[in-house]
Design brief:
Shape of chain A: elongated
Family (chains A, B): Belongs to the Nudix hydrolase family.
Distance between the termini of chain A: 24 Å
CATH topology of the largest domain in chain A: Nucleoside Triphosphate Pyrophosphohydrolase
Structural class of chain A: alpha+beta
Largest interface: A-B, 79 and 79 residues
Cofactor (chains A, B): Mg(2+)
Helix content of chain A: 10-25%
CATH architecture of the largest domain in chain A: Alpha-Beta Complex
Radius of gyration of chain A: 19 Å
CATH class of the largest domain in chain A: Alpha Beta
Keywords (chains A, B): Hydrolase
CATH superfamily of the largest domain in chain A: Nucleoside Triphosphate Pyrophosphohydrolase
Oligomer: homodimer
Strand content of chain A: 35-45%
Number of strands of chain A: 10
Protein name (chains A, B): NUDIX hydrolase
GO molecular function (chains A, B): hydrolase activity
Number of domains of chain A: 2
Chain lengths: 186, 186
């Protein structure tokens, strides 16, 4: 395994645009595989997003909101899409304040990850919020959610019960546990 | 916050099917919001997938493969889509053996998470492989990848360098660190 190993790169032969929406777009690429055969790849484009581990009195700020793709509500850390050209750390401050009211002095990057690299290019940036001060939430027009805060044991329980069940929030709880045990995020 | 709080449930008024592919499908739902307004929701349907934290001599098995949505290769833990009707633990055993050659006596669930609940219903099951025995990999026809194994320090380094940058592998490394520190996965 060498660095930047693209010996298995797939060459795009054709791109068919399927859909261009408010949040995502979809294309189907016909590609040439390393063995010379062709295949199709279904690719969702997404602007990227941010999410925030914010601890207040040793509790994690979470929001409960309805997730239409799942047909139910979920408890998640504050998160949102990047606006065009927006710095991830600024987006994280904006989303935290909009959804929870808390203002944040600085955002420390924990990690950035592609949520579903098999079919989507969504890159999610996870931050740790420092220097928090309370304030007034200010939700988007079509955003409905409740903010609360969970102890570590509650967060663990919520994961066990399936009330927390999304990648970013579970990654944040894992990062929090590592932070509790080591004082660092990995 | 009450359990199964769906007071913000969105009622589906109309569903438009946009695309039905090999891996994903796409629909746009028009919904009624809690305030009576309407909005659209872009929803990707996915069959679900599995991924495996497998430790051999205290090293994590990983595969490097080209990811067309990202336009580059990535190092990830073994993973793959669920076949219709397949048990996640069976799929995890199958994918581990196909991609790495290792057979696994039992698959212990670590966690299951929705990768992108804002726009997709993909549910990913993360397992810990126990009782591993080496064997011969057996890749799908259109699958090209290299298998290797990383120490914890190497995995950490790969994350810092961006060679590991997907949610499932970062979650697996976090889980591994918690396991190293506590003997359990959370």
């Amino acid at each position: 395994m060498t660095n930047a190993n693209d010996k298995y790169a797939e060459v795009t032969l054709e791109t068919e645009k399927i859909f261009d929406g408010k949040v995502i777009s979809l294309q189907v690429d016909r590609v040439r595989l390393p063995n010379g055969e062709t295949a199709t790849r279904e690719i969702v484009r997404h602007p990227g997003a941010v999410c925030v581990l914010a601890l207040v009195d040793d509790k994690m700020l979470v929001v409960e909101q309805y997730r239409k793709p799942l047909g139910r509500s979920q408890v998640e850390i504050p998160a949102g899409k990047l606006d065009p050209g927006e710095e991830p750390s600024e987006a994280a401050k904006r989303e935290l304040e909009e959804e929870t009211g808390y203002r944040c002095g600085s955002m420390r990057p924990i990690s950035s990850f592609y949520t579903s690299p098999g079919f989507a290019d969504e890159l999610l940036h996870l931050f740790f919020a420092e220097q928090l001060t309370p304030g007034q939430a200010n939700l988007d027009e079509d955003e409905f959610l409740d903010c609360t805060a969970l102890t570590f044991e509650q967060a663990k329980q919520y994961i066990a019960e399936g009330r927390i069940s999304d990648a970013k929030t579970i990654a944040a709880v894992y990062a929090w546990q590592i932070y509790r045990l080591t004082g660092d995020f990995l």
